[in-house]
Structures are given as C-alpha cells and as structure tokens.
Design a protein that fits this description.
By secondary structure, the chain is an alpha+beta fold. It has two domains: 60 residues, SH3 type barrels (Roll); 79 residues, no CATH class. The protein is 16% helix and 44% strand. A three-stranded antiparallel β-sheet has the order 2-1-5. It has a three-stranded antiparallel β-sheet with strand order 8-9-10, with no helix packed on it. It has a two-stranded antiparallel ribbon with strand order 3-4. Strand 9 and strand 10 form a beta hairpin. The protein is globular, with a radius of gyration of 17 Å.
Length: 153
C-alpha cells in the first residue's frame, strides 16, 4: 500500500472582514501563500474561499457571493505580512476605503471611466503579474504618490 504525503505550501494568515451580496458578513482568517497576495487567492480557479472562523471551524464561501473583503487596517495588515510593505488607504469607485499594497504597482493612469451611465475621472493602478483589470480608485496619481511617500517615512 502506498501512502501519499500532502503538498505543503507555506502560507500566512490574514484576518479579513467579508461582506456578502446577501447582506450578511463574517470575519475570519484567510490563508494566503507566502509568495502571493490576497487578490491572487481571490482570483484563482477555485470557486470557493476557505475561511477560518473565530471558533476554529472552517467555512467555504462562494467567491461569487463575495461583495467586498477588507483587512481590519492597513497598519495591521502590513505588520502581519511584510513589515517593509507599502500599504496605503485609498477609496474605491464605490467610495469605500480599501487597503492596497503598492509594492507591486507598476502604473498609475488617470482616465475617464463610465459606471452606471455616469462618467467620472478615476485612476487605474496596474500591478505586476496581474492579468485582470487594473484597480480603479478616485484618488489622483499625485495623491497616491504622496500617500506612498508618507507611508515610507
């Protein structure tokens, strides 16, 4: 009889708050591979996101049901993962705060974006290794650069 040893991938634990499209929310831990970002896990091929609840149980949350995931704070997130990461707080196109690690950002481009029939100026942030659409925020490239400089001090 053969035995198979499971492949172990080093991960780090991120505490997250998850808002679901149904209006429900939950807090828990998501395990992210050491060499990946939370967005990489959210955009991988799996349809479900395993979340460790505060009581130690795990639930599988459908990625399609997730409306928003936030880290408790940029300061907490950066201390947990990489103490040298450049986390800043930006505002998404729905006027909600988001916490962004700018270490892998490669472009800031201001452009007009249309959403729900309205046109507004937005900044698109491109990241290395991201095949997806850029992240859209309301801050200007100049404001983002100032936030990055302040975070590095």
């Amino acid at each position: 009889m053969q035995t198979h040893q499971a492949l172990q991938i080093p991960t780090r634990k991120l505490m997250v708050d998850i808002s679901l499209a149904s209006g429900a929310s939950l807090s828990g831990n998501v395990y992210v591979p050491d060499q990946a970002r939370l967005s990489d896990v959210l955009n991988d091929d799996r349809g479900f996101l395993p979340v460790e609840c505060s009581d130690g149980t795990f639930v599988a949350v459908s990625k399609r049901a997730i409306e928003r995931i936030t880290l408790p704070s940029a300061e907490t997130a950066s201390r947990r993962s990489d103490p040298f990461a450049t986390w800043i707080t930006l505002t998404d196109i729905q006027n909600r705060p988001i916490y962004v690690n700018m270490d892998r950002a490669i472009s800031l481009k201001r452009a007009m974006a249309e959403r729900r029939g309205r046109t507004a100026e937005r900044t698109a942030i491109g990241f290395t290794g991201a095949e997806n659409e850029p992240l859209l925020v309301i801050e200007s490239p100049e404001e983002i650069l100032a936030l990055i400089e302040a975070a590095k001090k």
